[in-house]
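residues and backbone:
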Amino acid sequence: MDKSEFSYVSVAPKTQTIRGPRELSKNQWEGLAIEGTGKPRKGLFTISNTSPYIEYMESRWEKLLEELTDSTQYRVPTIDFRDVKPLSQEVYYKFYKADIKIVKKVLETAGLIQTISHDWSVLWSCGAAKTFLYQNLNEFQRINHFPNSTEITRKDNLCASIVSMQEKYGYKAFNFVPDTYVLPDEFADFYAHFHNEKNAKWIIKPPASSQGRGIYLIDSINEVPIDEPCIISQYIENPLLINDLKFDMRIYVLVTCYEPLRIYVYEEGLARFASEPYSLSQKKNRFSHLTNYSLNKKNDKFIQNQDAQCDDIGHKWSLSALMRHLETAGIDVGSVWIKIYDLIIKTVISSEQAVTEEVKKLNLNSKNCFDLFGFDVILDSNLKPWLLEVNLSPSLATDSPLDTHIKSNLLIDAFNLMGIRPFDKKKESINKLQNRLKMQTKSDISSRTVSPGRKVPFMQSTKFKEVVRDTLEEYKRRGHFIRIYPSKGSEFYDGYMEPIKLVNRYLYSILYTESMPRKTPIYNSVQTPELAVTPKLPKRHERQVSSEKPKSNEKVLLTGDDVLIEYVSRLCHAVKALKEDKLKPQWKRSIEKFITHQVWHTSDIRRGSNNRLWQRLESRLIEMKERRRRLVGTPTDEFEEQRRQVLRQFSAAELESMLKSSCRSSAIEIISSLFDLEGRGILSDVIKWLATVTEKDRVLIPLEEQMNQETTIYDSIDDTL
């Protein structure tokens, strides 16, 4: 083959051939940090990019895993798909409407046997799994799709999921998918957008297709089909080009669990190039505008990879070769990766509620399912990543040595990470009985040290310790996968989940509490998470409470309700004093979430255009006081005054610290709405903000107007900001 045939895509040339800026804009970034997640290495089996921070955390996780591993509890060892050894018993796999050669080879090389019975350990389906496949599974059986994964893998569902998130959390937070409409249902919205941007080009795709079928560009409203369902998206007209060719990235994403959420990105993937130079003037040239391999390989100009070691030659590169090329061109690939991680996490979260609800409905074990997605991402000339689509069953065809190298290692590492274990019904029944007896013995011992009726906090429960152990063991088996959730900074994304999954916060607090080495075990020394459970009341607080000795010789005992009522009283007082248009949006959202929480026995009857936010908050305050009165009765005036005196001694920050100590899950959920994602309470934030305001008349309602407002009697009416 003549060298001139490689003129379109070849080894990175000496001259700069990347159009667009070399660096990402230095805007303030919220979310993950590359030092806390890591970026893919420069090729499989090359030197790892592990940061000093990750190395330090890994050493802590090793110790934590040792603490959580019960040497007396027998567990069937996992199958090693890389260092293959003979299996001690027969292990089976099953295909459902699939027959993928490379999956078959990886499984059978490790010793698994194909079956048509139900005694399989791995079931592989090319499409969405049918409901009956999830029935009567034991905890060792794995299916390669979660129920409802199509919420992000069908183009129409992905559009609906992202639009829903944009409406809830703002367009900017989820602005990584081009403006997209589902036709014919959203034709009116599309029509308005089309005429507002008359020079824009659009791309039409079928709602559930693959391999580039049925995709074409339009720039005239007359070209839009009106009698058949389709997806129409605004075309990215300024893609980043290499050697004048458009390209996209196939990124492999593994989700092993949704509750708690665990997301991994594979260190290697594919960069797929169009086979003809990019030109907006040739909109009908699909070889110029589409990067799908299945389409471009039909072009006479397409160059196939012939050697996995030469991974930057031809029209399909390895992802690491692409990143090496960008790095050579002076681009900060770490910043590119962190934005890609952000895009992936938010996309998975958009389907999280639909998936977890179906998992519970089907009564599945948290380990029964996994999903190996193919995320197709394109970079524009500003180095912004855009999500094109998510593939439920990404192609595992091995048309080239590069495909074989990447996809075989991908499957080996994926199966290893998931921890496939042989299943023997008889042995497992015996093991379960033995382990249950051991757990019962431990329970009997602990029951002697725990007060009767006292509930063990969830973070100290056996179930949660198993969650932590499973997470750490997965990480240890990760191979060439990078865990992006949970990872340092991933608690930022908890605010995009409704309802907030407390197990995610608990797990994050265990994994990423950076404490120095100490003699006490790591698990027991970890502080409780922000907005989570059981930090002890400071001793100073205890002294203040116990030193107040009522004349009737009664002790003043503060309940969680007392603290919450006091806090909401002060917050209501603060909100009432401020002009409503001066309240920060995040304060309004948090208070709104508190007011409308499902825990309330009554509906939000004061909601409406004539009622202010403080009035609706006041209604909840009245309901809380009435609830306390029904539970404990009406206290004496003397006792009530003593209780108020004790509560008044606490600052807003101290009240917030006590609120975080609630161990009831229902209380945690509603209390967490009064805090931001970093654990700061609304009231403290209001107080600090007001202290910085120089012209308080601009933000405070005049005192006369406040006096004329209908109000209740607050527990701490003399509290001021």
In short: Residues 333-361 form the longest helix (29 residues).
